[in-house]
Design goal:
Length: 283
């Protein structure tokens, strides 16, 4: 744990420190050796929260992006079950910062417990299996409504650079066709390249890209709550579905915007949905 109660106030670990666990009320002691990250540990039990995992420096760096009062906040369900969210914002969004692998059962349990939850995943261990391809126009744009993108895969020449069909051309042949049915039929008509619409794509770009995840951690693909992956640069990538064709995509979101939005939006699914100027000094 990063924080415990000392004289009724949340505090970080300090040499010789003792406190009280905010979740279970048990005694905690500070661990502040020269070769370990300073933290609190339960004096006689391993941890009172079964969803606990060993904290890495990556966890700690993310927690420290938020005010002290938002870190390690106890959350109680209607049936009395209690867990400690890594971060819980004043607007009610819980953030679970996850480094280790997770079973479907545990993921589902946490999503049902917190409900208004966003996942923040450490992608360092699978970065080499995750390819991010060409830009996509904003899925809400007029341009996007006419485009059906060919799915890009590693080692598929061409599609990773951006190939698409036009729905308008398919409608000339079959007025009942939709993006969903066109995808199921394997496409129709001429194949176009992104170079034909490069300017228009740039004008309507809001961070969306095609991607391919080789040997994915499938539990995150099945998640009901938003999943953001941190690959160590200034952007997070959010797993998403682009449109009614079912095309898998990611949206690149700056870390600064992510932190800002979770502090001001009231639901996890509203993060990165609005675009407006953000002062760099804001949380």
């Amino acid at each position: 744990m990063q924080l415990t109660l000392v004289n009724g106030e949340k505090m970080e670990a300090f040499p010789g420190g003792r406190g009280i666990c905010p979740l279970c009320g048990a005694e905690t002691i500070a661990k502040c050796g020269p070769r370990i990250m300073h933290h609190w540990a339960h004096h006689r039990i391993r941890d009172c929260d079964p969803w606990w995992e060993n904290e890495t420096s990556w966890h700690r760096e993310w927690k420290n992006k938020f005010p002290l009062e938002c870190r390690e906040v106890s959350h109680t369900a209607e049936d009395g079950e209690v867990h400690r969210a890594d971060v819980k914002t004043p607007t009610g969004i819980a953030i679970e910062i996850q480094h280790s692998t997770m079973t479907d059962t545990e993921r589902t349990s946490r999503e049902e417990f917190y409900q208004n939850l966003v996942w923040l995943i450490d992608g360092a261990s699978f970065r080499n299996n995750f390819d991010i391809y060409h830009m996509l126009p904003d899925p809400k744009s007029e341009l996007a409504q006419d485009l059906l993108w060919i799915v890009a895969k590693r080692h598929m020449n061409g599609a990773d650079n951006g190939l698409f069909f036009r729905l308008s051309e398919a409608l000339e042949e079959d007025p009942s066709v939709t993006k969903a049915t066109l995808r199921g039929s394997g496409g129709w008509g001429l194949i176009h390249g992104i170079h034909e619409i490069e300017y228009e794509v740039n004008q309507s770009y809001t961070g969306y890209h095609q991607y391919d995840w080789v040997r994915p951690r499938k539990t995150w693909l099945d998640a009901k709550c938003p999943v953001y992956i941190d690959f160590g640069d200034e952007y997070l990538v959010k797993l998403d579905i682009y449109d009614e064709s079912g095309l898998k995509c990611v949206q690149r979101v700056s870390k600064h915007k992510f932190v800002h939005d979770v502090m001001v939006e009231d639901h996890a699914k509203k993060i990165a949905k609005r675009f407006y100027p953000i002062n760099q000094g804001e949380p």
